[in-house]
Write a structure and sequence with these properties.
By secondary structure, the chain is an all-alpha fold. It contains 11 helices and no strands.
């Protein structure tokens, strides 16, 4: 006959076995920081490891952008407020990447991760007249502020430090209706008439040149 010992010993053995099994099955808890690094690995091929972007493929610099703005844009891509227009090539690339974030919590985690990345101040790539652009920028001040640092309450992102080629490209998109025409995109709809005030691409380049002079 198998002797299992006293009832107390049997109970203690059972409890210890159950505890060991539970510990063995428990998955390690991943910190938000570590999770952010894992999630950002999917962004590296376009936005680069440092988040400084790649003009050759139209990927903007995202390092250091506010967490609230990154999260808002990812949610717009997920809901097709951005990235659904046929002429928005960059947006169409971003939409499946945003949908790859299976849980909405991950949207917040990766947004926080990118916001903590140090930005890189780059030089001008376009010919623009910063002095003329300063006058044109007057229509932008109400939302983006005189120094281009943005306004979260108005959902206006910072512009200071952003690449001039990207600024011009997005102004073109707003003016052409590629961005800002989705009824659900309230902040985008606000930007569209502002872009339409600019007469032509040279005016957009002038604004971008002025933005290049703003400190972040």
């Amino acid at each position: 006959m198998l002797n299992l010992g006293t009832p107390k010993k049997v109970l203690l053995t059972a409890l210890l076995s159950a505890s060991t099994l539970a510990l063995g099955c428990q998955q390690p808890v991943q910190s938000d920081q570590a999770r952010g690094e894992v999630l950002y690995a999917n962004c590296v091929s376009c936005h680069m490891a440092e988040g400084w972007g790649d003009q050759k493929i139209g990927a903007p610099a995202i390092a250091g952008l506010p967490e609230w703005y990154i999260e808002a844009q990812l949610l717009k891509f997920r809901s097709a407020q951005r990235g659904s227009h046929f002429d928005d090539i960059g947006g169409m690339k971003m939409r499946p990447m945003s949908l790859a974030l299976l849980h909405e919590r991950d949207v917040g985690i990766i947004s926080a991760h990118v916001a903590k990345m140090p930005p890189l101040r780059k030089g001008a790539t376009l010919q623009g007249d910063a002095k003329k652009g300063q006058g044109l920028f007057a229509t932008c001040v109400a939302c983006h502020g005189p120094t281009g640092l943005g306004n979260e309450a108005l959902r206006a992102p910072p512009l200071a430090g952003q690449d001039d080629w990207y600024v011009v490209g997005q102004l073109q998109h707003f003016k052409a209706g590629i961005r800002g025409t989705n009824p659900a995109d309230v902040s985008g709809a606000t930007m569209r008439p502002m872009a339409m005030v600019l007469a032509d691409e040279q005016a957009m380049r002038d604004v971008a040149a002025h933005i290049q002079t703003l400190s972040k």
